[in-house]
Design a protein that fits this description.
It is a single chain. The protein contains three helices and 16 strands. The strands form four sheets. It has a six-stranded mixed β-sheet, with helices on one face. By secondary structure, it is of the alpha+beta class. The N and C termini lie far apart (145 Å). It is 24% helix and 39% strand. It has helices spanning 4-14, 215-218, 221-269; strands at residues 32-37, 42-45, 54-61, 64-70, 73-76, 85-88, 93-96, 105-113, 118-128, 135-140, 148-155, 164-171, 177-181, 184-189, 196-203, 208-214.
Length: 270
């Protein structure tokens, strides 16, 4: 047995004329995907096709009449949406405010234009929780003396569903490049990448948050590694100078000794 709302919908739909847009239940088969966030607003936007102005609109959620718009006046039929529905742009946008999880579902709309043309559409609204602010945990690995080996864990404080994780990086470049996907990455950085920055993006279909980390803060031992490598260079330089000095001393000694022997031989012949 059909409810009053279903009968009202059927009567309105049967008067719409263009039945090719409607499925076996008298409603559109293809739904436009719309994503919303709890406690925020979402807009259901009509693709206006008529040459005239909008005269009358019926909005329905599932099989319940939600609202009726006639000559710029909106009549809300569902008390759960009192003070939460707003018509914008001369009727072409329905805004739902202070979204709740239970607002999710299939919204149907039929439009009557002043030129007597009619239109219909449907929207599949999914309402998500906002993404919590993420944080990065650093797990240092054994210091090889040449590279900074680190495992990074990006996470959010609460158990939020439908989340995906993406890492981006930039090094001496104003724009980020895709680095990896997933909440955990392992990196191995040489000392000359101290100005590298990593960005973790956490998102669901409706919202996203991000957090970044600078390698200079993540690998403070890079300066020590650089100084150590620089110290090794100075050490080799000093060894070279010392060896050269010893060699010159030896050559000077043999040169002096040769001159002395030559002088002695010259005295003997005289």
């Amino acid at each position: 047995m059909k409810t009053k709302d279903e009968r009202t919908w059927r009567i309105y739909v049967e008067s719409a004329g263009d039945v090719s847009k409607w499925g076996t239940q008298g409603k559109p088969d293809v739904h436009l995907q719309v994503h919303g966030i709890t406690d925020r607003s979402v807009d259901l936007i009509l693709q206006v096709n008529g040459t005239g102005h909008i005269q009358e609109i019926y909005w329905t959620l599932q099989s319940r009449i939600l609202a009726h718009f006639l000559y710029n006046l909106l009549d809300i039929k569902n008390k759960d949406y009192d003070n939460r529905l707003e018509i914008l742009d001369y009727g072409s946008i329905l805004r739902i405010k202070n979204l709740r999880k239970e607002d999710g579902g299939i919204y149907y709309v039929t439009v009557q234009y002043t030129d007597r043309k009619q239109d219909s559409a449907s929207y599949f609204l999914t309402v998500y929780d906002p993404v919590p602010p993420p944080s990065i945990q650093i797990e240092w690995e054994e210091d090889t003396g040449e590279r900074c080996n680190v495992t990074l864990h990006c996470s959010v404080p609460s158990q939020t569903s439908h989340l995906s994780y993406t890492w981006k990086s930039r090094h001496r470049d104003p724009t980020y490049q895709l680095y990896s996907n997933g909440g955990t990455i392992q990196i191995s950085l040489p000392p000359d990448h101290q100005d590298m920055e990593l960005l973790c993006i956490v998102q669901n279909p409706a919202d996203q948050k991000n957090v970044s980390i600078d390698v200079r803060h993540m690998c403070p031992n890079l300066d020590t590694m650089r100084q150590r490598n620089s110290g090794k260079g100075r050490h080799y330089y000093l060894i070279f100078i010392l060896g050269l000095a010893i060699l010159l001393m030896i050559l000077g000694f043999f040169s002096f000794k040769a001159k002395k022997e030559k002088k002695k031989r010259s005295q003997v012949f005289v």
